[in-house]
């Protein structure tokens, strides 16, 4: 069985991205993790989560199936590792956080800038990735 809930803070907080990857938007509620920062990653439109001052805000996705966990895990960049976080309201959530030593930018990532500048092309990239993923799954 997969982890109980996924804390999303970057591209996966956009319903269009989730729908493109797993055909639905799981149940979700606003959530936050203290002691974490959502930072820009060099050359990537999506962010990373690193320890830092402040509060990382996002959503807690619940009710993911094991297959949906597999898809999201395969989709995520190797720069991440799955880590269980304590959320400010006392709940827990798993999150894809940057591996120690990952190269990150000095500035925070902006969901608003991503939505305005990168979201349509990113959805296209997600759809192409999913087609490749499903073809590979059928071939194996």
TrEMBL record:
InterPro entries recorded: AIG2-like, AIG2-like_dom, GGCT-like, GGCT-like_sf
Keyword annotations from UniProtKB, A to Z: Transferase
Pfam families, per database record: GGACT
Keyword Transferase: yes
Keyword Transmembrane in record: no
Domain Gamma-glutamylcyclotransferase AIG2-like: residue ranges: 6-110
Single Gene Ontology MF annotation: transferase activity
Domain of life: Bacteria
Organism this protein belongs to: Thermomonospora cellulosilytica
Full protein name: Putative gamma-glutamylcyclotransferase
């Amino acid at each position: 069985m997969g982890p109980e809930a996924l804390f999303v803070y970057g591209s996966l907080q956009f319903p269009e991205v989730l729908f493109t990857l797993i055909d639905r938007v799981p149940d979700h509620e606003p959530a936050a993790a203290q002691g974490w920062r959502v930072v820009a990653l060099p050359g990537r439109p999506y962010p990373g989560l690193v320890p830092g001052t402040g509060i990382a805000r996002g959503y807690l996705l619940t009710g993911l199936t094991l297959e949906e966990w597999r898809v999201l895990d395969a989709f995520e960049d190797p720069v991440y590792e799955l880590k269980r976080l304590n959320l400010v309201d006392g709940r827990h959530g798993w999150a894809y956080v940057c591996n120690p030593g990952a190269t990150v930018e000095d500035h925070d990532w902006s969901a608003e800038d991503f939505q305005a500048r990168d979201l349509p092309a990113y959805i296209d990239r997600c759809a192409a990735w999913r087609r490749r993923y499903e073809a590979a799954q059928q071939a194996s």
